[in-house]
Design a protein that fits this description.
The protein is an alpha/beta fold. It is built from 16 helices and 13 strands. The chain folds into two domains: 202 residues, Rossmann fold, CATH 3.40.50.300; 180 residues, 3-Layer(aba) Sandwich (Rossmann fold). The strands form two sheets. The chain has a seven-stranded parallel sheet, with helices on both faces. α2 runs parallel beside α3, α3 crosses α4 and α6 crosses α8. The longest helix is centred in the first third of the chain and has 14 residues.
Length: 433
């Protein structure tokens, strides 16, 4: 079978408002009360065909408004349905994303009689069982826990009309694809299916071929340049001294709320223990933490009880914390787009923030690709904040004179294709369909 091809459905123009979308007045009211007036590109492209019942594929990053893009059409379609039966299922890879989607559902649908329930692991099953047996109209679930309930006969999907597969590539990365297939094979075939994914690896494409019919395709990639207001800094340091450097940087009182990204769960625990030993209030979130532990960590970080939150990328998806002063990349991400996603957690709502990266010699190549995406060489200007005894562990800054894209961080980039903030035009992302 050939790759999915776009099909035509009218999309509102770029300057449209939510009033131009085919949504009931009760939903429009919920949208306004959330403070939204103009739909994002993924919302403009998704809502009309989704309300019309089309299967669709959306390529969109986290943070582009895709949660409302699929929840609003679901709410619209179910407004007149009798209560007490499950009509819609949203599958998502992490507990944080499930809770976030269920929270959006409550706020968007507050003026309707529709009910939602979040189903995820790490907590007891009794409350979830009651919600499922009570016939919540919309279920948001992680695959593993949902299968547990299905195997026990706690859920009835015979009335199901809409299925959403959210973060398809992330579910693949986390090994959920076999569980997703098991779930889909037990759902009614006569349904609307929507698939959202930041990328389209072959396995996700095969899933789309198998379970979607004549899908409408919306491509709404997030900009791959870092948010305006983020100041980028780096320190070239030996791997074994990263934690010492991190502790020294955290001594600065201006770094009041710091999100530290590491690559693995084991390293998250180790770094957190080392920070605690240094007297720094710290919490961690990663895939091995229970839901109760994750919620406690996030609430403590938001309230200021914990000054530092150490997180892995997968666990941090869907985490939205206002007022983060600094993002520290303890490990350099392999993909430049992951760096952009990380540092976007600071400098929100027109604030300013710092992105600090600790670069070991074996990470220099990955960081050079990040600099290429940013369009300039990130300054290594933080050594003055380190005690004299630590500076001897800094490694020489790699030569960057031969990089044709290198320029001063705030130099002007003129020309018709200039990007906001004076950055060069974004590189086209490779697509695999």
């Amino acid at each position: 079978m050939s790759d999915p091809q776009p099909s035509s459905t009218a999309t509102p123009p770029a300057n449209s408002t939510f009033d131009d979308l085919p949504l009931d007045a009760t939903l429009q009211r919920g949208v306004r009360e959330m403070g939204y007036s103009e739909p994002t590109p993924i919302q403009r492209g998704t809502i009309p065909p989704a309300v019309a019942g089309r299967d669709l594929i959306g390529t969109a990053q986290t943070g582009t408004g895709k949660t409302a893009a699929f929840l609003l059409p679901i709410l619209e379609r179910l407004l007149t349905r009798p209560r007490g039966r499950t009509y819609a299922l949203v599958l998502t890879p992490t507990r944080e994303l499930a809770l976030q989607a269920e929270g959006f559902l409550r706020r968007l649908g507050r003026h309707t009689r529709l009910r939602g329930a979040a189903v995820y692991g790490g907590v007891g099953m009794a409350d979830q069982e009651r919600a499922l047996r009570g016939g919540a109209e919309i279920i948001v679930a992680t695959p593993g826990r949902l299968l547990d309930h299905m195997d026990r006969g706690y859920v009835d999907f015979r009335a199901l009309e809409v299925l959403v597969l959210d973060e398809g590539d992330r579910m693949l990365d986390m090994g959920f694809l076999p569980d997703v297939r098991r779930i889909l094979q037990r759902l009614p075939r006569n349904r609307q299916t929507m698939l959202f994914s930041a990328t389209m690896p072959p396995e996700v494409v095969r899933l789309a071929h198998e379970f979607l019919h004549d899908p409408h395709i919306i491509r709404a990639d997030a900009p791959t340049v870092a948010a305006v207001g983020v100041a980028h800094h780096a320190i070239s340091v030996s791997s074994e001294r990263k934690t010492d450097v991190l502790v020294a940087l955290l001594r600065a009182p201006a770094r009041a709320s710091v999100l530290v990204f590491v690559r693995t769960k084991h390293r998250a625990d180790r770094v957190a223990r080392q920070l605690e030993h240094a007297g720094i209030r710290v919490a961690t979130i990663h895939g091995n933490r229970s839901q109760t532990q994750r919620i406690r960590a996030l609430e403590g970080f938001r309230s200021g009880r914990f000054r530092v939150l150490v997180a892995t990328d997968i666990a941090a998806r869907g985490v939205d914390v206002e007022g983060v002063s600094d993002v520290v990349n303890y490990d350099v991400p392999h993909e430049p787009e992951t760096y952009v996603h990380r540092v976007g957690r600071t400098a929100r709502a027109q604030r300013r923030g710092d992105a600090l990266t600790l670069v070991a010699p074996d990470e220099a190549r990955d960081f050079a690709r990040i600099e290429q995406l940013l369009g300039y060489s990130v300054p290594r200007d933080l050594s003055g904040e380190l005690p004299e005894g630590l500076t001897r562990f800094l490694v020489p800054e790699p030569t960057r004179a031969a990089r044709p894209w290198s320029r001063a961080p705030n130099s002007n980039h003129s020309g018709p294709s200039a990007s906001p903030g004076g950055l060069p035009p974004r590189r086209p992302m490779r697509r695999r369909w």
